[in-house]
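Reminder to self: tokens first, then the designed residues, so the page reads top to bottom the way the pipeline ran.
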């Protein structure tokens, strides 16, 4: 497997567990930030030249056979506006406000590049294991990043940020992308997020790129839609690094709560767990039991869930287990 570019690494995090068929609010946030990741990648590779405070696109990228198709997709979408220069904020904001059609094209070209390397695949959506969706026989798909690659990317980011030492420009961009896409919790625990805020503040004081970048927020165009969708109250942590989605919306849901029914009420935790894992295996999901106590933790397709014994009310009581996203 060849070395991955910044936008590919970010996309493997942002697309994991996203709906593969529908443009959900959550996926739109990810795609907006994936477009911004393409701009960031172009800057790192010298395709955006700085001149008098402006970044000017080197249009030779369109004639370069090594240019990725997703890169062309993003820049051609921006250049429809007949402008080819602006400051950092201008480029990133333009990229993060592409039309839904352009975002769909970006999704296709990015996924094609990742599927070609066997790094991502479409699988049945975890919601397909839910009692109500299962009974409706609805065909739903989601993306799943190759587990070992997902883990390698996450651990690489964690190692550079949480350990002492210099932080590369690529990792500074990745931090910003994780903040803007509400993906911090894919990488860091809630406790570690406090350290990350401190680290970002330090970087913004010492590193010019971080100082410029961390002031930029690109999510404002989606804020109202996200608030309406999540019915969330603003609970922001204001810092010199800005307010990312993780701070405004502590939990931007990317995976739903799933109720798996069992044929009977199992008082034995082992039998209950077997009933759940059997349904997961049937649905084509990869899982790993992380803790086998009364409340079981299961990593399913790179996402950690707690399995809670419960039942549904109504005319007939249905016993089962609810899978609920578990914070790191």
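Designed residues (328 positions):
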């Amino acid at each position: 497997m060849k070395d991955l570019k910044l936008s590919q690494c970010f996309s493997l995090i942002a697309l994991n567990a996203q709906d593969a068929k529908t443009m959900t609010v959550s996926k739109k946030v990810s795609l907006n930030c994936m477009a911004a990741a393409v701009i960031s990648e172009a800057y790192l590779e010298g395709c955006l030249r700085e001149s008098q405070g402006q970044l000017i696109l080197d249009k030779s990228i369109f004639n370069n056979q090594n240019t990725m198709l997703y890169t062309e997709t993003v820049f051609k979408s921006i250049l429809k506006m007949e402008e080819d220069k602006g400051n950092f904020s201008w480029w990133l904001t333009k990229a993060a406000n592409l039309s839904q059609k352009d975002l769909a094209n970006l999704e296709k070209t990015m996924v094609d590049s990742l599927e070609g390397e066997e790094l991502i695949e479409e699988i049945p959506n975890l919601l397909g294991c839910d009692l109500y969706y299962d009974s409706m026989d609805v065909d739903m798909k989601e993306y799943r990043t190759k587990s070992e690659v997902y883990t390698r990317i996450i651990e690489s980011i964690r190692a550079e940020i949480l350990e002492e030492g210099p932080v590369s420009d690529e990792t500074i961009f990745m931090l910003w992308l994780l903040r803007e896409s509400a993906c911090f919790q894919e990488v860091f625990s809630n406790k570690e997020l406090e350290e990350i805020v401190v680290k970002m503040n330090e970087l913004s004081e010492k590193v010019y790129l971080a100082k410029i970048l961390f002031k930029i927020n690109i999510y404002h165009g989606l804020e109202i839609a996200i608030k309406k969708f999540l019915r969330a109250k603003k609970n922001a942590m204001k810092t010199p690094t800005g307010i990312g989605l993780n701070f405004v919306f502590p939990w931007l849901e990317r995976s739903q709560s799933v109720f798996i029914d069992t044929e009977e009420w199992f008082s034995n935790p082992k039998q209950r767990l077997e009933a759940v894992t059997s349904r997961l295996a049937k649905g084509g999901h990869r899982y790993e039991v992380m803790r086998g106590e009364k409340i079981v933790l299961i990593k399913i397709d790179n996402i950690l869930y707690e399995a809670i014994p419960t039942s549904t009310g109504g005319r007939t009581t249905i016993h089962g287990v609810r899978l609920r996203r578990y914070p790191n």
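The chain has two domains: 6-229, 256-325.
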